[in-house]
Design a protein that fits this description.
disordered N terminus; alpha/beta; 17 helices; 3 domains
Length: 400
């Protein structure tokens, strides 16, 4: 390390170090100081960006960390909700993560060496010809596609309604695909046949979660006529306090004495326990059923017996631009769908006409729409309308 570097930033770096350590201790004493810690940590991050301006690989890394710092500002200064998981949405959790991040940055800053030349990326990412490692990466990529779970499809591991997974093959490893994708490219020596294999497999990775008609059969609109099941609604998938408003559904159900609700939910046992408690308080025990796990391959048979599928989303940035997998599960199982008036769901309904929307949080509208759906006949959905091959053009056009 040259002498010039040792003196150029040393005093400032030590000052920032002491300042951050002071506010770290104060933040542990009182969460109020975490706001100031966020500012001082931002200064450290900006310093690292300046030091690494000629080192592309480090600059990109520090810029990524900088986006994390910026991400925390809406919470610490405006109380903005950052996560759908309410038990993570608290000062202790966010302050603790900020402290850990701050400690990492200030010590990184203290020992980071600025260089006077521009890095050659090849010094950091070397493309090599290693057939054994290439094949190993390809095998793991295929393994992840076949056995990995991601998003709401993780419920396939134990089925909707299950809280824990115990089988290794059912772990949520789908996102790890990217690691082995990069390794395969690294050891491909950029040979065209190998790159063709990598990107061909990646196409299957991208399409893995798209609802395939063949999984459900071609009986798309079989609304069962059995009277004891006609006034039944079902909810499948994840539950939380931020995005899904099942509390609201229970309050509405209290004014629908002839309707029953079946819930297949998982992962958030605190939310599920809350819903069970609210069910008891509203005296709905006889009309609300919390079900045991159902393997995904049996889901169609299980929910086909119900009359109505519900998507009770709240209105926020997370849900307004999200179309959940459960929508296609409902459609392909022959259920009418009642959903909140989120823009993304309204747009899908314009295409497929699978049900009706209600104003999110409006109890009277929810009840009225249920009554209307009881008498409304929906047009039959052609199974080809949900076929990936048929929808390819529409999907790609939406991305342009």
């Amino acid at each position: 390390m040259n002498l010039m570097y040792q003196t150029k930033y040393k005093i400032f770096d030590i000052f920032i170090l002491i300042l951050n350590l002071m506010f770290i201790l104060l933040s542990l004493y009182n969460f109020y100081f975490s706001k100031i810690l966020l500012i001082t940590t931002t200064i450290v991050n900006i310093t690292l960006l300046y030091k690494s301006i000629k080192q592309k690989s480090f600059f990109i890394m520090f810029f990524f960390w900088f986006t994390y710092i910026i991400y925390l500002y809406p919470y610490f200064f405006f109380g903005t909700q950052l996560t759908p998981f309410m038990h993570y949405q608290n000062e202790y959790i966010f302050t603790l993560t900020l402290i850990i991040h701050s400690i990492f940055l200030i010590f990184f800053n203290l020992f980071f060496k600025e260089i006077k030349h521009t890095d050659d990326p090849k010094k950091f990412i070397k493309i090599k010809d290693n057939y054994l490692f290439f094949i190993a990466s390809i095998v793991i990529m295929i393994f992840i596609i076949v056995f990995g779970k991601a998003g709401e499809t993780i419920f396939e591991s134990g089925g909707y309604g299950r809280n824990l997974t115990t089988n290794f093959l059912n772990l949520a490893i789908y996102e790890y695909y990217y690691i082995f994708f990069l390794l395969a490219v690294k050891y491909s020596d950029l040979k065209k046949p190998r790159l063709f294999v990598i990107f061909s497999i990646s196409i299957f990775y991208m399409l893995r979660n798209f609802p395939l008609v063949k999984e459900y059969g071609k009986n798309m609109n079989n609304h069962l006529s059995n009277s004891k099941l006609k006034k039944t609604m079902v909810y499948i998938g994840r539950v939380d306090f931020y995005a899904r408003d099942l509390d609201f559904v229970l309050y509405c159900l209290a004014d629908l004495p002839d309707w029953k609700l079946h819930i297949y939910a998982t992962e958030k046992m605190d939310v599920i326990q809350h819903l069970k408690k609210l069910t008891y308080e509203l005296k709905l025990n006889e009309r609300v059923t919390f079900h045991e796990p159902v393997p995904y391959y049996k889901l169609h048979t299980e929910i086909n017996q119900y009359y109505l599928g519900i998507i009770p989303h709240k209105r926020n940035l997370l849900t307004d631009y999200t179309v959940p997998n459960k929508l296609y599960d409902y459609i392909l199982s022959g259920l009418k769908v009642l959903f909140s008036n989120n823009p993304s769901l309204l747009e899908e309904n314009e295409i497929y006409n699978f049900g009706m929307s209600y104003e999110a949080g409006n109890k009277e509208d929810f009840i009225n729409k249920i009554r209307l759906l009881e008498s409304k006949e929906l047009p039959e959905i052609n199974d080809k309308e949900l076929d990936w091959n048929v929808n390819m053009d529409r999907v790609f056009n939406s991305l342009i």
